[in-house]
Amino acid sequence: MSTEEVVAADQYKIVVDTIEQTIHDPEVTWKHVVDLAYPGQADDPQLVFKVHFEDAKGDPSSGTLVKGNHVTVKKSGTTFSVLRSVVS
Amino acid sequence: MSFDPWSHSSDLQRLVAAGYELELTGDGYLLVSNVPYLDESRGIQRGILVSKLEMNGDETVNPVDDHVAFFIGSVPHRWNGEKMTPLADASLTLADGRVATFSMSLKSPTNVRYNDYFEKIVYHVENLESEAQQLQPDVSAKTFGTCVIRNDDWPFEYADTASGRAGIGAINGRVANQRIAIIGLGGTGSYILDLVAKCPVAAIHLYDGDRFSSHNAFRSPGAASLDDVRAGGFKAERYANIYSKMKRGIEVHAYDIDESNVSELAPFDFIFLAMEGGVRKQAIVNGLESMGKTFVNASLGVKKTSNGDQLLSIVEVNGSTIENRVIFRQSVDFGEIRDDDIYMENIQVAELNSINAAMAVLWWKKLNGMYASSKPSLSMLIDTYLDGLYTDR
Predict the structure, then answer these.
(1) Helices B187-196, B350-367: inter-axial angle, 10-degree rounding
(2) Touching check for A45 and chain B: CB below 8 Å?
(3) Which of B97, B130, B161 is the last residue of a domain?
(4) Domain ranges (residues) in chain A
(5) Is the N or the C terminus of chain B less surrounded, counting Cβ atoms within 10 Å?
(6) Residue predicted with more confidence, B161 or A23
(7) A84–chain B Cβ distance below 8 A for any pair
(8) Class of domain A12-83 (CATH, top level)
(9) In chain A, whose CA is at the least distance from the CA of B391?
(10) ipTM of this predicted structure
(11) Which CATH number does the domain housing residue B283 bear?
């Protein structure tokens, strides 16, 4: 596609909460995504980060990424959402 | 002024004066008891004629388009032993469980529509009783028996004619008699009340120790006046006053639930949790689990994008049943919102609060079998950034 960026051979570009991030491993773990969005908070057992993705390489290409799991991203364009929900 | 259809609707007034034994149900039906008819062996029986009743407040809506009436009793017959016509099999379940198994469609003999319910009821009753009168001339539906205005038992201040009109009284009736608690009357809790107040539940208890202020006004249903905001009363009292205009059985508890008083929730059939996370919520959940309760937690999370000019959000509900506590425990965030937490801002917006409330109420209604569900789920989440709906199915 003409709009697709040229990404270096050892790099992958993902978008996490609207911010573009460059990573080096196409297997993106839940912890990696949470660390990108909320540095230093992924291991706090009290907090529950909800991670969802779309336009991933694998099947399914979109869905929920749960703690301990990973998703295989495309060279570029795989998008993640990371949020906690604690207010009411 | 309380609901009084008999004095506000002249057609009902005339039926009462004529001696018919009327009953108005909370789900919008008019019943006539002790209507004489003939059974298959030409014995005289008494049945109940049922008609939808369209009302606006406490006045009937006339003329009456609906020319169908239902019948609770055995198969009615003519004096010569033939089955009554027109007569069709039907299955109309009233909210209190009574089932009408026949329907009869009689158009007005003089008009396209009945001028009012007096005409419709008398015509349908006479169709049945005239056959019985062939064998016993003095038998009559005009018994002058007590007109049952059982509105003391009604869940609302006036009849729920929306359910009767749509024919979903029996479906809505599945939550009748339930005792509901709403814990937290912030944005989401107030919208939960807004929806549950339209259900025929027996009781809604409101728990919140906060007072109503202007920031609440911008994320709760309806419109608060400046005086309402200035009054600064307890949220629980304010909402009970508003919703008691329509819904009966709303009770105020202007304090928070925590570990010390969670046992107060023992009498409830269902509990909506609409409060912040943290140790207090954890303690309530522990208490509810140990009491074997079924409950749902509504929560949302909003943050600004890094450049600060847009919002990212998720809205979710998580249910907990005696059969499955695990998914709730895994999914619900019991962490605190720290004041210094730059990642977690306490942003709430009315559309997110209201959709969160609607999701919680939908989960509760699905649990009660009101919606068909191919595979029940315990969690439902909407992500506004990815435009996704996610469940645990």
Answers:
(1) 50
(2) no
(3) B161
(4) 12-83
(5) N
(6) A23
(7) yes
(8) alpha beta
(9) A64
(10) 0.92
(11) 3.40.50.720
Q: Domain range for residue B129?
A: 5-161
Residues B234 and B357 placed together within one structural domain of the fold = yes
What's the pTM value of the predicted model, to 2 decimals?
0.82
Q: Is A87 part of the contact surface with chain B (CB cutoff 8 Å)?
A: yes
pLDDT of res. B129: 96
Please give the tally of structural domains in chain B.
Answer: 2
Residue A51 to residue A65: CA distance in whole angstroms:
5
Domain presence at residue B116: yes
B332 touches chain A (CB under 8 A): yes
**Per-residue pLDDT reduced to its tens digit, B293-304:** 999 999 999 999
User: In chain B, which ranges are continuous DSSP H helix?
Assistant: 5-8, 10-18, 117-135, 161-166, 169-172, 187-196, 214-217, 226-231, 235-243, 279-290, 326-331, 350-367
Chain B residue whose CA is closest to A79? B386
At residue A72, φ and ψ (nearest 5 deg) are -90, 125
Do A41 and B383 lie within an 8 Å CB cutoff? no
Name chain B contacts of A37, Cβ cutoff 8 Å: 343
Give the mean model confidence (pLDDT) for residues B40-62: 92
Does B80 fall in a domain?
A: yes
Residues B245, B143, single domain; the answer is no
